[in-house]
Amino acid sequence: MSIFFRQTAQAMIAQHIDCFPLLKLEQMIDWFGNRLDEGMVARKLLNGTQEGLYASQSYAAQHGTPKTPKDLPAHKLIGYRFISSNKIEPLVIVQNGQETAVEMDTPLICNDPEILLDATRQGLGIGRAFTHNMQQQPDRTDFVPVLQKYWRQYPPLYLYYLQHSQRTKKVQAVIEFLLEKTAQYR
User: Fold this and answer.
1) Phi-psi category of 97—alpha, beta or left, where left has phi over 0 and alpha has psi -120 to 50?
2) Sheet of strand 88-89: strand arrangement
3) Rounded CA separation 22/44 (Å)
4) How confident is the model at residue 1 (pLDDT cuts 50, 70, 90)?
5) Is residue 102 part of a domain?
6) Which of these, 23, 30, 163, 185, has the minimum number of CB atoms within 10 Å of its CB?
7) How confident is the model at residue 17 (pLDDT cuts 50, 70, 90)?
8) How many domains does the chain fold into?
9) Can you give the CATH number for the domain in which 97 is found?
10) Does 36 lie in the same domain as 106?
11) Are residues 89 and 111 in the same domain?
């Protein structure tokens, strides 16, 4: 069992480093369960969300929409590349409670969610967006949800900070800004 944990932890750390190469850790934090260390504050920024798959009405009219996950490889995906790590985000859906990566033709890869949505609007392929981002789009009803029951679920997002750090005006300003900008999603 210890071999499994060592290999799993190494893979998780390697994946994290790939996604966030500029992140430097200055202190070690052990976190187990839902307890915070004394003096830490957790403020919810976003409720849990899903990563949805969407097509434009023109794409759906011309190519149809997948009815099952097995239909996805016959369609085009607008890919997403992380700016910080330069890694392409694989398309992951949830089948039978398990996350499953799906290979699709990806003729266009974007590193900006707004450009990805614009490409989806123009019918260049199936795009993906977090549901809270899609709700902000004035033309959201023009997008056709694809395979909704297979969408990946993400947990709520929290801001963690030391209780007394908010006494610093700059830190307090950042906390207030983030809470204000995300209030509609809680």
Assistant:
1) left
2) 88-89, 76-81, 105-110
3) 25
4) very low
5) yes
6) 30
7) low
8) 2
9) 3.40.190.10
10) no
11) yes
